[in-house]
Amino acid sequence: MGATLLGSIRKRITAPPTSSIRYPVRGFDTTDAPARDELEFSAFQLLFGFELGIEQSGLDHGDLVIRLESVRREYQGFAYEGAVMGLAMRDAMSPMPGHRITETFMAGPDFHSAPGSKHLFMGYMGIGFTLAHLPKFMWKRALPDYRKLADYPAMRWMIMDGYGFHQAYFHTRKWVDEQYVGSNYPGFAPDPYVNRAIDQGIARALWFVHGGNMKRYVDALNAFPESRRADLWGGAGVAAGYAGGVTADELEVLLKASGQYRADVALGAAFAMRARVVSDTLADHNEMAAQVLCGCTAQEADEIAGRENTVLHGGDDSGATYELYRQRIMRHFR
After folding, report:
1. Rounded alpha-carbon distances, angstroms, from residue 204 to 158, 253, 330
2. Potential cystine with 4: which of 51, 57, 170, 207 (Cβ 3.0-4.6 Å)?
């Protein structure tokens, strides 16, 4: 079922104006930002997906998927991320208990046939965007039952990665310039890993904030305390590997600047390749990033990340389990 009057009302209430993601409106430095147009366009696809997700009605996602699949293949992940954000917002706003909308889209009765299952990575991040728009007492209504979303519940930490991206992109002064560290995250705290996952998202956001200007980007990462940099550089690898927008030479500059965190960058890039390959949205710039940042093909990086996720099977959803998975990928690049 397509959009309804109620869906149009939800969209009007919750959808941010398109102009809100543009660089001049956000106050970002647009001088010498070679990836600016590419990254802005990617952000527009997320907003487009959100508008589709928030205005749809019912549990039949057929019409939503048709519209999402109309997006150019390399940008579909951003659109699906936005769509899950919209669906999670509908769950949070619904007077009915449970989280049927998000769960049926991302998992359904048969995980592998669910419309959003191939974009699970981006979907998790989309839920994080939703949390950033809700008071914390409503978070429980937006968070899905992880047992229904895949066989590795520890991947839920990507939700807080998405949350960190949102906060750094839309509240840059507080979360980046002032290096704010939050607390009290329902469903995640008191696990100390929560702020590490947020830092991974902050670094992804900074890739967009600086529009591919490598000097400003590296300086922004290194301005944070040493204790936070491993996660920040890991997030840099995800952003550079997935969103791209820069040349191979600029990626070489990034890798050289990462110094002792080269393996963290490669880890992030391997995550990006996993997301791209599983969703069948691999583009030329992803392959280039894999070659530079991982020293292997995108397919090989995906296979490494895929093999190591066995540590998550049957494991708990703690930050320690998620970090063990990350460390096992990193050992291939040290």
Report:
1. 12, 17, 18
2. 57
